[in-house]
Amino acid sequence: MQVSIENVGSLGRKLTIRLPAQRLEDTIRTRILEMGRSARLKGFRPGKVPTKVIEQRYGSQIRNEALSEMIGSSFQEAVTQEKLRPAVQPSIATTGRPENGEIEYTATFEVLPEIGKLDIGALEIVKPVASVTDADIDQMIETLRLQRRSWNQVERAAQDGDMVLFEYSAQGEGFRHPESGTDRVGAILGSGAYSKELEDKLAGHKAGEEFSAHIDFPAAVRTPALSGKSADVNVKIVRVQEAQLPAVDGAFAASFGVKEGGLERFREDVRANLERELKGVLMGRLKAAALEKLVDSHPELEVPQGMIENEARMLARQAGAQTQDAVAQFLPTARRRVSAGLLIAELARQNNIRLDTSRVKETLATIASTYEEPEQVVELYTRDPQLMSALQNRVIEDQVVEWMADHAKCSEQSLSFNEVMRPGA
């Protein structure tokens, strides 16, 4: 095998590789003979199909497969020999035809950048810290009670916390909703989920009462036709219901799968779930802060364009848009993400940070525990190399970020559970 290298820009490489044509022909001949011994064709006894018939029917397919495999294996051999680290899959060009006893092909690709010694000692990273308190557990249990509440019809006037079913029509400049008749909507007073202004007007009215009011609807109103509009609204109250919250007792705990241990065990489970969620969010915030500092400290880093474009296409697909314009909008974000990945990998290499397999199992168990049938989730990851690879990448990233926090100028920021889980609330 003969290999020649041409630099195409700072990261681009073009390999020209020449292989003995006989190597391909020997592989093709061997595969034709093997197929002749196993092929079952009408009119021929098993294992007795003539070579010429195999060549006529399958020769082109066998040649293409053999050529593709020979190129793949020789390319890997070439990049190892030349100590190259391809960043993306190569673009291969070849006629596939022998010339002067050789088959030639070119492989064009980008290589990973050479990154010098990384020193993060000067990076200033803020690490958020928080813990789960009894008050946080009480608040979560109250949230769970709200999720399990029932509604009882009442004859009194509506008040905060009630569910009010009402019919209405809205008319403003150049529009009416609905075009004819009325629309029927339910709203929990005080939630602001529909329109806080309208909910405030509903309070104090009983079933069967009617009233009119001028309402400025928010942009996020559930009815798109009223989004951000002002209208005169005619309302008729259909039904008022008050919430009935379940008692926090053994039956309540059992409804969440706690069959033994009663409320004490239930509170332990709630704490464990909150601590798991808190740990994940804290790591996410630390990772975001650390990687932002890391990327910003290496603005000169050359990043393979192919990796950036692949990342941008993935981000566009995740956002439900795959046009060229949409992909272009994600290029800046993609560049930072790829830069972060390259720097994380280099930090791991330079500091001998190896994947902790026990931590992979622990993380997988945590993910699986959030599903009704965790065993199936573990099996899914175990059987899917792509899923497992993504999980392993996540774990090694977490390991590197924790190492960064230990070796950079790291300060702690104490926060409450709510400040971490519901920032800005």
Question: What's this model, at a glance?
Answer:
By secondary structure, the protein is an alpha+beta fold. Helix content is 47%, strand content 20%. Strands 6, 7, 8, 9, 10 and 11 form a 6-stranded antiparallel beta sheet that branches. The chain has a 4-stranded antiparallel beta sheet with strand order 1-2-4-3. A two-stranded parallel ribbon has the order 5-12.
Keywords:
13 helices; single chain; alpha+beta; 4-stranded antiparallel β-sheet; Alpha-Beta Plaits; Trigger factor, domain 2; Chitinase A, domain 3; 425 residues; 3 domains
Your description of this structure?
By secondary structure, the chain is of the alpha+beta class. 47% of the residues lie in helices and 20% in strands. It has 13 helices and 12 strands. It has helices at residues 21-38, 51-81, 134-147, 196-202, 250-254, 262-296, 305-318, 324-329, 331-350, 357-368, 374-383, 385-407, 417-421, and strands spanning 2-8, 12-20, 91-94, 102-110, 124-129, 150-154, 163-172, 175-177, 183-188, 210-216, 230-244, 409-414. Strands 6, 7, 8, 9, 10 and 11 form a 6-stranded antiparallel sheet that branches. α6 (262-296) crosses α9 (331-350), α7 (305-318) packs across α9 (331-350) and α9 crosses α12 (385-407). The chain is elongated. The model has no long low-confidence stretch (mean pLDDT 93).
